[in-house]
Amino acid sequence: MTGPFSRRRLLTVAAGGAALAALPVRPAFAATDEELAYANFAVSGELLLADLYGKALGADVLTDPGRAALRNGRRAAIQHARALSSLLTGAGQDAPTAQDFDFQWPENAFATPAAIAATGRIVLRTMLGVYQTALVAVSEPTYRILYASLAASVGQQLGALTALAASGVVQPFPVALDLESASGTLEPYLG
Amino acid sequence: MRARLLAALAALVAASLASGATARSTATGPLTIYAAASLTEVFKTLDPAQNYSFGGSNALETQIRNGAPADVFASAAPLNAERLFKAGLVDKPVTFTANRLALIVPKSNPAGITSIYDLRSKPVKLVVAAPAVPVGGYTLTVLRKMGLSSVLGKVVSRESDVKAVTGKVALGQADAGFVYTTDARPVSDQVTVIRIPAWAQPRVRYEIAVVSRSSNKAAAQAWVKRVLSAKGQTALKNAGFLPLPKASS
Fold first, then answer.
1. Residue B247: phi, psi to the nearest 5?
2. For an interface test with B, which of A33, A51, A102 has the most B Cβ atoms less than 10 Å from its Cβ?
3. How far is A19 from A72, CA to CA, in rounded Å?
């Protein structure tokens, strides 16, 4: 391990996103609106994450190992959004795109590595919490596999950002969130 | 004296012929503009001189299809304008603004609603627009996206346009209703607005087109340009409408 990041950890973060892209998501003929609501929220959250990583990279306040974590996180968020969009379109719904949002970030959210990590962890914890709830709320097995993979990948990203801040605490039991709570947390960022 | 009068008349005619679409509009009378009910305040502010017929875009579409003497059609959903375009009844429609949905409750808020999720858990009298009305369709989209379609079981009335929904809530005849954010503004002393999350918002796009059989096409085209102009867009923005969507701007 060199500094807060190891090459192995970064590769692990990247692998999470790549593996998700290959997941088959069966068109859900019997999915209920309640089940699909998780995907609708999650696409938006992943698009928000991709924007966060992009802006963090643009701020240019990180050294190269940290930048690699941001690049990997961004790649994963884009792949997650694609997988979730496929789920929605397969179920006959329109999926949101980044053009549907006017993302809002607090002033100085990207001013320092610690600020980037703090903002990123708010979004990531929210997404992880929703994926945990979705895992037990949906009935379709392929959805469950997708949400389990998404939760694992987001957990990896949380670890990477925690290391970036060099002061974060890894939660032993991340909290599951219902959609209403998660929506309330991300609403200020979604615009 | 007679010669001077004739000269003045001739000058007036020449000026009238030379001054373009706006003057032609005046010469042939005001335009007849069919527009979505949600555009009522902003269009009247933008240009009080024209004749307006406001209503549900679906109803206005039907009237134009049946030969109503409209010059311009402004719809709250692309579908209505596009269908008329495909039928050759309007020129190619263009997107000119966007909007968002909101939930409104009476100021007295007898049902105690503070979040859209409260519709699920509390006994409420909910009012919506009919599914064929753009705002009614958008309401269904919001509820479907949020997994709240079950609250449709609490609908007590389906209205013909968004102003009717707004009116029922403002008068306390319903506990809550789905409207455009811009419709809540004129009754802000009577209703409280509850935000619908950005992730659940439908793509509310307005389209405008000149009616093909308009007898005043040049003036109608000039009026559409006026809506698309900086002045028109500022008026829309001031009324709470959103800028032209990124994808279509």
1. -65, -30
2. A33
3. 13
Alpha carbons B127 and A65: distance in angstroms, whole number? 55
Name every residue whose Cβ is closer than 8 Å to that of residue B240 and which is 6 or more positions away in sequence. B181, B182, B185
Confidence (pTM):
0.85
* Best residue of B143, B152, B194, B199 to probe chain A, by most A CBs closer than 10 Å: B199
* ipTM here: 0.83
Cβ atoms of A168 and A26 within 8 Å: the answer is no
B153-183: per-residue pLDDT in tens? 999 999 999 999 999 999 999 999 999 999 9
- B155-159 vs B126-129, strand pairing mode: parallel
> Around Cβ A35, how many Cβ atoms within 10 Å?
19
Give the closest of B149, B195, B201 to A33, CB-based: B149
For the record, the structure tokens of B224 come out as 């559409």
- Residues in Cβ contact with B216 at an 8 Å cutoff, skipping those fewer than 6 apart: B24, B25, B28, B31, B71
Tell me phi and psi for residue B193, to 5 degrees.
-95, 130
Tell me which residues of chain A, numbers 83 to 142, contact chain B at a CB-CB cutoff of 8 Å: 93-94, 96, 99-101
Distance CA A174, CA A176 (A): 7
